[in-house]
Amino acid sequence: MNAPMPAAHDDLRDLQDLPSYPKERDDYINPARALLTGPPISPLRFAGGSVGWLVTGYHEAREVLRDPRFSAERWRGDDAMRPVPESVRRDRSSGAGSFLAMDAPEHGHYRGQLTRYFTVRRMRELEARIEDIVADQLDALEAAGKPADLVRHFALPIPSLVICEMLGVPYEERELFQSVAARLLRQDRTDEEFVAGKTELDTFLRTLVEAKRKDPRDDLISLLTAVDELNDEEIGGIAGLLLIAGHETTTNMLSLGTFALLRDPGQLERLRADESLLPQAVEELLRYLSIVNAFPVRIALEDVVVGGVTITAGQSVAVSVPAANRDPALVDDPDTLDVGRPRSSHLAFGYGIHQCLGQHLARIELVAGYRGLLRRFPGLRLAVPRRRSGCAATWSSTEPTNCPSPGDGAGPDRARPPHGRNRHMGSTHAEFM
């Protein structure tokens, strides 16, 4: 269905003037300026041409994300939900177990099976192992020589190893799920590529779940096979969601966060001088970077008033987390990175029932990763001038693209990995001393 036209609104002048979704960032760090200067809620033209609403205000974003009158179920939407092909979106059986696009009570049924495994206490039990993984990857980074590829040898392996060990996925299969993630999340991929990638991942996970049922081990997938309420397809859907979400955004947060610190020497030196600031710095980097690129989209189940605007039943609403996290209503001077800023109630992990299940794990990985990097390489710096570096937007997050260093044999044609190649590989080069 096509969403109805928004009611009369001061900002609705000409449909051609509406900002579109998805909205590219102005650079690798900052949200598009148009998102930061407009009203907290305004009309938006989605990728397929339908008109709905864009929320950029902090308080309005929280309101939409927590209100059960807004649905996350993708089958209800129209072309606003472009990241998922229509054939997949309309097939309600295709997302079994993938509770990200579900409403209560179905969402709670699946998420509830996992909550006990992602508590703060459980995640703290993993800290020692995560520290070991970080140390191993720092060794690999150093052994690679100068200039070092921060993503290939550090940012990508850390969360990939952690989530593989948690789920019981053989790490030697990482190329498969990293490659599939690349294809599923690329903004310019075709619907056919999405379906093919999803089918490949589903087949791999279904085979793995069957093996775990026959020979259970001490891992999360094995534990889920013992839950009577879950079938193999649902367990595979849960595992696929955790596998991709468990490494994609943390990888990009480790690399882009390092990049942000390297371009701001004053903040970097504050961290070097006082490691106790690291937990605050992680929260500030999460707020400042808002790594998730695709705005959460919700569909109004009934007429709802948000920020003085009436959103009618059936209309789609995109919530810009990057813009909401730069709202002065959240923090003072929001466009400044301040590693000593008191922890804010940012929306980097979402809000409401869909708030990130793995947020405690991500925080531990980020603190351990940044701390290890700063200790091991006190002279870490970018291998190329900042102006030659850049990032690419995916449906999931913003990530560094190739930053070739002088003399490493990289030419302009390597500025972005070719389709089908793991886009993280060969990404951010740095030099250390």
TrEMBL record:
<dbReference type="GO" id="GO:0005506">
    <property type="term" value="F:iron ion binding"/>
</dbReference>
<feature type="region of interest" description="Disordered">
    <location>
        <begin position="1"/>
        <end position="24"/>
    </location>
</feature>
<feature type="compositionally biased region" description="Polar residues">
    <location>
        <begin position="394"/>
        <end position="404"/>
    </location>
</feature>
<feature type="region of interest" description="Disordered">
    <location>
        <begin position="391"/>
        <end position="433"/>
    </location>
</feature>
<dbReference type="InterPro" id="IPR001128">
    <property type="entry name" value="Cyt_P450"/>
</dbReference>
<feature type="compositionally biased region" description="Basic and acidic residues">
    <location>
        <begin position="8"/>
        <end position="24"/>
    </location>
</feature>
<dbReference type="GO" id="GO:0004497">
    <property type="term" value="F:monooxygenase activity"/>
</dbReference>
<keyword id="KW-0479">Metal-binding</keyword>
<keyword id="KW-0349">Heme</keyword>
<dbReference type="InterPro" id="IPR017972">
    <property type="entry name" value="Cyt_P450_CS"/>
</dbReference>
<dbReference type="GO" id="GO:0016705">
    <property type="term" value="F:oxidoreductase activity, acting on paired donors, with incorporation or reduction of molecular oxygen"/>
</dbReference>
<dbReference type="InterPro" id="IPR036396">
    <property type="entry name" value="Cyt_P450_sf"/>
</dbReference>
<dbReference type="GO" id="GO:0020037">
    <property type="term" value="F:heme binding"/>
</dbReference>
<feature type="compositionally biased region" description="Basic residues">
    <location>
        <begin position="417"/>
        <end position="426"/>
    </location>
</feature>
<keyword id="KW-0408">Iron</keyword>
<protein>
    <submittedName>
        <fullName>Cytochrome P450</fullName>
    </submittedName>
</protein>
<dbReference type="Pfam" id="PF00067">
    <property type="entry name" value="p450"/>
</dbReference>
<comment type="similarity">
    <text>Belongs to the cytochrome P450 family.</text>
</comment>
<keyword id="KW-0560">Oxidoreductase</keyword>
<keyword id="KW-0503">Monooxygenase</keyword>
<dbReference type="InterPro" id="IPR002397">
    <property type="entry name" value="Cyt_P450_B"/>
</dbReference>
